[in-house]
Amino acid sequence: MRRAGRTLAVALAVLAAGGCGAPGPREDDAVTAALAFETALGSSRYAQACSLLAPRTRRDVAAAEDCGRALAKENLPVATGRASSAVAEVYGRQAKVRLTGDTLFLSQFDRGWKVIAAGCTPRPEQPYDCRVKGG
After folding, report:
1. Would 9 be classed as within a structural domain?
2. How many structural domains comprise the chain?
3. pLDDT tens, position by position, 11-70
4. Calpha distance 82→32 (Å, rounded)
5. Strand order in the sheet with 126-133
6. DSSP-derived secondary structure letter, 89
7. Which of 96, 112, 122, 127 is nearest to 53 (CA)?
8. What CATH number corresponds to the domain at position 119?
9. Counting Cβ atoms within 10 Å, is residue 48 exposed (0-12), middle (13-18) or buried (19+)?
10. Which pLDDT does position 79 carry in this prediction?
11. Which of 82, 103, 106, 114 is deepest in the core (most CB within 10 A)?
């Protein structure tokens, strides 16, 4: 009986350790959305990039003109790298995705992750400074 209990404890520890550090599907989905946005920017497909923005962010970007033209004028940094180099932190329906050259904030909507802020740089002991953000 003691051996069975010890074996079960070891098995549970191995299973728990195996799950640590591995990105989950929500993090993967947030990274995929962030990379799609960056790919659209890098290819100057600004209308497509706008479709990946959260509704309030898209409204704020396009306050005075077409979203694609307004987004092009923002001169956002274009991240480099692949999903394997991205770092995603998901908190409920919010995510921060750090890529080489850019940090994005996303929110999860019924139809997937959308960018709520882009072109973000950290500031010591203050919130990130983002070139594009909603409301």
Report:
1. no
2. 1
3. 333 333 333 344 588 899 999 999 999 999 999 999 999 999 999 999 999 887 899 999
4. 10
5. 87-91, 94-99, 102-109, 112-123, 126-133
6. E
7. 112
8. 3.10.450
9. middle
10. 85
11. 106
Sequence-distant (6+) residues with CB within 8 A of 115 are 33, 34, 37, 52, 53, 54, 57, 104, 105, 106, 132
Task: Answer whether residue 7 is part of any domain.
Answer: no
Q: Is residue 115 part of a domain?
A: yes
Q: How confident is the model at residue 1 (pLDDT cuts 50, 70, 90)?
A: very low
Contact in structure between 33 and 26 (CB atoms under 8 Å): no
Nearest 5 degrees, angle CA 96-CA 101-CA 106?
Answer: 20
Indicate the residue type of 131.
R
Q: What is the pLDDT at residue 7?
A: 35
Question: Is the predicted pLDDT of residue 132 greater than 70, yes or no?
Answer: yes
Contact 61, 117 (CB under 8 A): no
Composition of the chain by helix, strand, coil, percent to 5: 45, 30, 25
Which among 116, 86, 88, 84 has a CA at the least distance from the CA of 101? Answer: 86
Instruction: Judge whether 3 lies within some domain.
Output: no
Q: Note the pTM of the prediction, 2 decimals.
A: 0.79
